[in-house]
Automatic annotation (TrEMBL):
Gene Ontology cellular component annotations, sorted alphabetically: membrane
Sequence similarity: Belongs to the ADP-ribosyl cyclase family.
Keyword tags: Disulfide bond, Hydrolase, NAD, Transferase
Endpoints of the signal sequence: none
Pfam family, any one: Rib_hydrolayse
InterPro entries listed in its UniProt record: ADP-ribosyl_cyclase (IPR003193)
Name the record gives this protein: ADP-ribosyl cyclase/cyclic ADP-ribose hydrolase
Gene of this entry: BST1
Cited SUPFAM superfamilies: N-(deoxy)ribosyltransferase-like
Length: 344
């Protein structure tokens, strides 16, 4: 049998020592078992330990930040889970920074008022508004906003009132911050609460940031009562031509039988102040050729559905100066006339 000489065995031992001293051994986790730690320490020579400590272990450097991030996120996840489980109502909770948003909107709106009305006291308006935040969230009446309305009310421009149903975003963008029309959400007492939510906790003081009641929960909730009272005042103050924008693409119908317009706006129109009511039925831009679509095309003239027919296009090419000099109002009248002819 072939046998290794003592010299050969000793040389192999030296090679193993060199390999071990040049290799890093990184733990899979900080919680290594006592047996593994003991076995590892027994297998190393004393001279190997300083070399490994000096080089360090890269995976452990990555593991520590990951653990720290996990610890930071655990409280957040717990709060979110508790919030979802503890939601009392169907609506969104109180908007964060409600007071700051309210006061900011109020002060931003003041330059839009007439000079004699620009001295509105936004702090006093907020104090009147927040009285409802001390009431049970299902016991807030429209009349609870009377003082708030009284302090924030201002005159409305004649022929500029725009009522609507089921097309809030379109109305807001089309009104263009009172440049074209002045819908309720562009009146001071409507602007400060637009797209916001607020309510007190049901059985405690302080605001409820988890959820607030809607009409499904109770009729006299803070947000619905706010819009009821604001709608009533807006209707009373509107004069001249009244414009109404309805959503013809709404599956349930353009005009809801029950809604703010039917219940809290039409009944409060002042007949002696109104000369005419114009109703626009709005469709998606690819829908029927209605005046509201044409009005939108003034702002979106490059949209394919806003192009006139070839005959009109050739006419426009022949008299470019005439079209270039027309104001937006005259263009609207022309488009409405074209729509009437096409309808015939």
């Amino acid at each position: 049998m072939f046998q290794l000489s003592p010299g050969t065995e000793a040389e192999r031992g030296r090679k193993r020592a060199r390999v071990v001293s040049g290799r890093q051994s990184c733990p899979l986790s900080a919680g290594r078992s006592h047996f593994s730690a003991r076995r590892s320490s027994e297998s190393r020579r004393p001279s190997e330990v300083p070399a490994m400590s000096a080089r360090g272990c890269k995976p452990s450097r990555l593991l520590l930040p990951a653990l720290l991030l996990l610890l930071l996120w655990l409280p957040r996840l717990a709060v979110d889970a508790a919030g979802a489980a503890g939601a009392r109502w169907n609506g969104e909770g109180t908007s964060p920074n409600l007071q700051s948003i309210f006061l900011g909107r109020c002060n931003d709106y003041r330059p839009l008022l007439s000079p004699e009305e620009q001295n509105k006291n936004c702090t006093a308006i907020w104090e009147a508004f927040k009285l409802v935040l001390d009431k049970d969230p299902c016991s807030v009446l429209p009349s609870d906003y009377d003082l708030f309305i009284s302090l924030s009310r201002h005159s409305l421009p004649r022929d500029k009132s725009l009522f609507w149903e089921n097309n809030h975003l379109l109305v807001t963008s089309y009104a263009d911050n009172t440049r074209r029309f002045t819908p309720l959400c562009d009146v001071l007492y409507g602007r400060v609460g637009d797209f916001l939510s607020w309510c007190r906790q049901e059985n405690a003081s302080g605001l409820d940031y988890q959820s607030c009641p809607t009409a499904e929960d109770c009729e006299n909730n803070p947000v619905d009562s706010y819009w009821k009272r604001a709608s009533i005042q807006y209707s009373k103050d509107s004069s001249g031509v009244i414009h109404v924008m309805l959503n013809g693409s709404e599956p349930t119908g353009a005009y809801p039988i029950k809604g703010f317009f039917a219940d809290f706006e039409i009944p409060y129109f002042q007949k002696d102040k109104i000369t005419r009511i114009e109703i626009w039925v709005m469709h998606e831009i690819g829908g029927p050729n209605v005046p509201v679509k044409l009005l939108k095309c003034v702002d979106h003239s490059t949209h394919p559905d806003c192009a006139l027919n070839s005959a009109a296009a050739s006419t426009r090419r022949e008299v470019p100066a005439l079209y270039a000099e027309q104001s937006a109002g005259l263009i609207v009248l022309l488009l409405v006339a074209l729509a009437s002819v096409a309808g015939e």
